[in-house]
Design a protein that fits this description.
Elements (H helix, E strand, L loop, with lengths): L3 E5 L6 E7 L9 H12 L7 H4 L4 E5 L1 E2 L2 E2 L4 E6 L3 H4 L22 H8 L4 H8 L4 H17 L3 E9 L2 E2 L8 H9 L7 H17 L5 E8 L15 H10 L4 E6 L9 H4 L3 E4 L2 E4 L7 E2 L2 E2 L4 E7 L10 E4 L4 E4 L10 H23 L5 H17 L1
Antiparallel strand pairs: 1-2, 2-6, 3-6, 4-5, 7-8, 7-9, 9-15, 10-15, 11-12, 13-14, 16-17
Helix pairs in contact: 1-6, 1-11, 4-5, 6-11, 9-11
The protein binds ligand EPS.
Length: 382
């Protein structure tokens, strides 16, 4: 059965909800693990005032008996604390004079106004908001926890903010990763961290926003996940679609593709045998060849654009009164690059598990674990 979920919920509505189907039974879920992912997502330099209101905790309303999954659909809920401040808002019809017509260029405001024709940009803001990533993280965290138990580890960091780069860092070194996880910029180099923080402070002062790049690495995916047999089965295609669906992500690349001269003899990862095992001299392609995992770490960069809620204003249009105006400000974050790294981890976890389940169809966790262990053993003698 494919792994699938849908989520619903508005940024300032009652709650965010997801129903996850196809998750193996008999898996012991650690709710603290999910809540830890939710709390990691809330942190980071550049976050706005909203994060002082929310303390995201997941509630599991179905699919668990004790701590174990039953194979039934898993219903996850995160209540919005800010809902208390918006009570009444959802229950009444909006007055004409309270409708928002001024669009923020770059946000969903303008396109949503014409697409859904409710006459109020507020309806669009509520669903385009990156608040939705909280529930996607809860779904992904379940998957990420299971992946760890079958030897797949997903880690991330900030790669750049504005013009500052924290490059060439081994995130699978536990000491280094600990420093990254404690850094408000989720980066390693302290000097770069200071520059990044100063840049965010400056943007905040000027009423501006700033973007950057997130880096993700997935270790332990065995060779042969994904497929080249048809366009919609390619692992890099599937991951790219999911990553581009994360609010504010505008580009995705694998491995060193954007850094290297695109010359065949330099770019392609040469292979050799060592003690019977196939090794690579480099991992420029980021662990995926022809849409299939090649056993190396899957390395991904995602470009996070600057948030469109720019306090100093942009030229825009009042879509209700049909006039040229300066865009209105909506409370927001100055930068979403730090939380985006955590979202990226959890969003990719869902799809890696889905692809694993396609190769090793299993209803039960132990069936899955045994199939993977057997597959890895067989690979050694093939
Ligand atoms: C967001 C605006 C801000 C962010 C929000 C995304 O919320 P608010 O409008 O309530 O100030 O903090 O992100 C979250 C709430 C979250 O949990 O990540 C937006 O417009 O996209």
């Amino acid at each position: 059965m494919p792994l699938r979920f849908l989520d619903g919920g508005e940024s300032h509505g009652r709650a965010l909800v997801a129903i996850l189907e196809g998750f193996p039974s008999n898996y012991e879920v650690d709710i603290d693990y999910i809540n830890h992912q939710l709390s990691r997502r809330q942190k980071g330099y550049g976050r706005g005032q909203r994060m002082t209101i929310e303390k995201d905790r997941v509630e599991v309303w179905s699919g668990l008996r004790g701590r174990k999954t039953t194979g039934n659909p898993i219903t996850l809920i995160i209540k919005n604390k800010d809902y208390e401040n918006w009570k009444g808002y959802w229950e009444k019809d909006i007055k004409k004079e309270d409708k928002i017509g001024i669009a923020r260029p770059g946000h969903g405001d303008l396109v949503g106004f014409y697409k859904y024709k409710t006459g109020d940009i507020r309806d669009i803001i509520e669903r385009t908001s990156a608040r939705e990533t909280a529930i996607r993280c809860a779904v992904g965290a379940l998957c990420k926890q299971l992946l760890e138990d079958i030897g797949i580890d997903i880690r991330s960091k900030v790669h750049s903010l504005g013009e500052f780069y924290d490059d060439n860092v081994d995130i699978f070194n536990d000491e280094i990763y600990d420093i990254i996880n404690r850094s408000p910029m989720r980066c390693y180099n302290k000097n770069i961290e200071t520059h990044m923080k100063n840049t965010i402070d400056m943007c905040k002062e000027e009423g501006d926003t700033i973007g950057g790049r997130a880096y993700l690495s997935i270790r332990g995916v065995p060779i042969g996940i994904g497929s080249y047999t048809n366009w919609d089965r390619k692992l890099d295609g599937i991951l790219s679609m999911a990553i581009l669906s994360i609010q504010a992500v505008k580009a995705v690349s694998f491995g060193k593709t954007l850094e290297l001269p695109l010359i065949g003899s330099v770019y392609n990862d040469e292979a050799y045998l060592e003690d019977g095992a196939i090794k690579r001299k480099t991992n420029n392609c980021g662990g995926i060849e022809a849409g299939v995992s090649n056993g190396e770490n899957i390395e991904i960069y995602a470009v996070i654009k600057p948030i469109p809620s720019v306090k100093k204003g942009l030229n825009s249009v009042d879509l209700i009164n049909k006039s040229n105006v300066i865009s209105r400000y909506e409370r927001s974050d100055v930068s979403a690059v730090v939380p985006a790294t955590v979202v990226l981890e959890n969003v990719c976890a869902f799809h890696i598990l889905d692809e694993i389940l396609k190769k090793f169809p299993s209803d039960d966790f132990y069936e899955l674990k045994n199939s993977i262990d057997r597959y890895k053993e067989e690979l050694l003698s093939y």
